[in-house]
Amino acid sequence: MPLHALTRHTAGVIMTAALIAGSAPSQAATNAEAVAQTVERLRVAMVSSDGATLKSLIENDLTYGHSSGKLEDHAAFLKALDGTNSFQSIALTNQTVQVNGDNAWVRHVFDSVNNLPDGKTSTAHIGVLQVWKKHPDGWRLFARQAYLLPKE
């Protein structure tokens, strides 16, 4: 192979490798953004008690752990939130998203104002770990565990 052809070939290989290497972080960022957007859709659906959206965002074999130790499955999660107006507000802060293939985990601080059955309200300030699974139609919540945070 002539030197100029070898140089062009080598340059092409290097450029292709650079593009592939550059696309991996870009793909991860895109996936992390998609997960973050899905977490936001879940937050909005929880506040609005939108059962159809909630159902579309969770796995059939969901395990949903509360900071009290209470565990809910798919049916219990939907029953607790669909049309119940359980929350006045939910704010998520200090969120991090890590994507690993078709799985992602999200950590954040969850602050809420909760509507109680007697018409009163309570508040929650908890840490949360969520695990999401990627499907062709988007991300779905597979597992969630909350834990108590120190009082501020």
Explained architecture:
The chain is an alpha+beta fold and 152 residues long. The protein has three helices and six strands. Strand 4 and strand 5 form a beta hairpin. It starts with a helix and ends with a strand. 18% of the residues are buried. It comes from Ralstonia psammae.
Task: Write a compact overview of the structure shown.
Helix content is 39%, strand content 41%.
List its traits.
152 residues, alpha+beta, Nuclear Transport Factor 2, Chain: A, six-stranded mixed β-sheet, NTF2-like_dom_sf, signal, DUF4440
Which fold name fills CATH's third level, the topology? Answer: Nuclear Transport Factor 2, Chain: A
Span of the ends, CA to CA: 70 Å
CATH class: Alpha Beta
Q: Give me the strand/helix succession.
A: HHEEHEEEE
User: Over all CA atoms, what is the radius of gyration?
Assistant: 21 Å
Based on CA inertia axes, which overall geometry fits?
globular
The strand line-up of the biggest sheet is 2-1-6-5-4-3
Report the count of strand segments.
6
Q: Can you tell me the CATH architecture?
A: Roll
Largest sheet entry = 6 strands, mixed
Note the total helix count. Answer: 3
For the record, the count of structural domains works out to 1
Counting helices, strands and paired strands, the structural category is: alpha+beta
- β-strand amount: 35-45%
Mean pLDDT level: 88
Pfam family, one: DUF4440
Keywords: Signal
Domain DUF4440: 36-141
Signal peptide: 1-28
Question: Secondary-structure map with pairings?
Answer:
Layout lengths: L2 H46 L2 H6 L1 E8 L5 E2 L1 H8 L5 E14 L2 E13 L5 E15 L2 E11 L4
Parallel strand pairs: 1-6
Antiparallel strand pairs: 1-2, 3-4, 4-5, 5-6
